[in-house]
Design brief:
Number of strands: 0
Structural class: mainly alpha
Helix content: over 70%
Largest sheet: none
Radius of gyration: 22 Å
Oligomer: single chain
Number of helices: 14
Strand content: under 5%
Distance between the termini: 36 Å
Length: 334
């Protein structure tokens, strides 16, 4: 069998398994929810607040595009705001088809539009995502420090304890073995990089990624980058807060700190590698609302569904518009 068909079979199996996982998580989320109660809850939502949340989502996409462009500027090519905007949106759209493939898709957009090496653009994405994970860590620690009395029980039981249960001796041994194997692999590449064409290709890829990573440290407007990052997380918090305000059965007694907590918990749902966070987001948000606030499963699932689907719809619409724009711009350049 040729490599091409094998690769297609692997991609299809991977897609089906991840889609199955998303379906399983959705089943757990909706298990026990009565359809009539679900429909009634949807009708009670104030969709003006949801519309505002979607508008803030678009602002967040724009901020992310502007921030990413700052990292890419030192790579030496002219990258327009429209290029980075299209890349971000097409990346979001791709993630609904294949989880995590959106990062590769947006690199491809920039490469096609500017001629920059794919590896160098990928390095900027690695740096940007690393900063996002660091920012999420800061939010997580802030919630631990300032709101432990309110949210500590849920965080300890559902997040920390769950992580600890997975840190078995066998997993530690596997991780240590993988680390040692990686070091040996890197040594072999370094020693024989000039004499073997495959190792030479791997070396060039690594150099390209490192070039993209280092470009972040050479960006001319580092303070602007920090401001964009702060504004991005403020947008995420506002999206969470406006979603809370859309539900009369939830917003009584919930405030800014609760929106921050739900934003943090929801972020973990989007990180899980299933298509567009489907199922994972619904499960973790409804679980958090039930555990911390005593909100019923039905109400929690309604809130999670509208919150997720409004964000997903925004991503799909912006992604479709950018995909059309990108396709038309390619045709003009031919």
């Amino acid at each position: 069998m040729e490599k091409g068909p094998l690769k297609r079979v692997y991609s299809a199996v991977k897609y089906i398994l991840l889609l199955g996982l998303a379906g399983l998580l959705l089943w757990f989320s909706f298990k026990g929810v009565k359809w009539a109660d679900f429909v009634t809850g949807l009708k009670e939502a104030d969709f003006r607040w949801i519309g505002l949340s979607m508008a803030i989502s678009v602002v967040a996409f724009l901020i992310r595009a502007l921030r990413w462009r700052l990292i890419m500027i030192p790579l030496g090519k002219k990258i327009t705001r429209r290029d980075s905007w299209d890349g971000i949106n097409i990346g979001y759209l791709t993630n609904f088809a294949v989880p995590r493939a959106g990062e590769l898709a947006r690199c491809g957009v920039i490469t096609r539009k500017t001629g920059l090496p794919f590896e160098s653009v990928a390095g900027t994405v690695v740096l940007e995502r690393s900063i996002d994970m660091l920012s999420l860590g800061v939010v997580f620690i802030s919630v631990l420090v300032f709101f432990w009395d309110s949210f500590g029980g849920f965080i300890n039981k559902e997040i920390i304890a769950s992580m600890e249960s997975r840190l078995s001796t066998g997993l530690i041994i596997i991780a240590a073995s993988a680390f040692v194997a990686s070091l040996i692999f890197l040594y072999i590449i370094h020693k024989y990089r000039q004499s073997h064409p495959i190792l030479r290709k791997i070396t060039n890829i690594v150099k390209g990624v490192l070039k993209g990573l280092l470009s972040g440290f050479r960006m001319p407007q580092k303070w602007l980058f920090i401001i964009y990052t702060v504004l991005l997380w403020v947008c995420y918090w506002l999206m969470s807060y406006t979603s809370i305000m859309a539900f009369p059965s939830i917003n009584q007694g919930l405030g800014a700190s609760d929106a921050l907590f739900l934003m943090m918990v929801g972020s973990f749902g989007w990180v899980i590698p299933v298509q567009g966070g489907i199922g994972a987001y619904h499960l973790i948000i409804s679980l958090a609302l039930a555990s911390v606030y005593g909100i019923s499963q039905t109400t929690g699932v309604i809130f999670a569904t509208i919150s997720h689907e409004s964000q997903a719809l925004t991503m799909l619409l912006c992604g479709a518009i950018s995909l059309i724009s990108f396709t038309l711009s390619k045709r003009k350049s031919l």
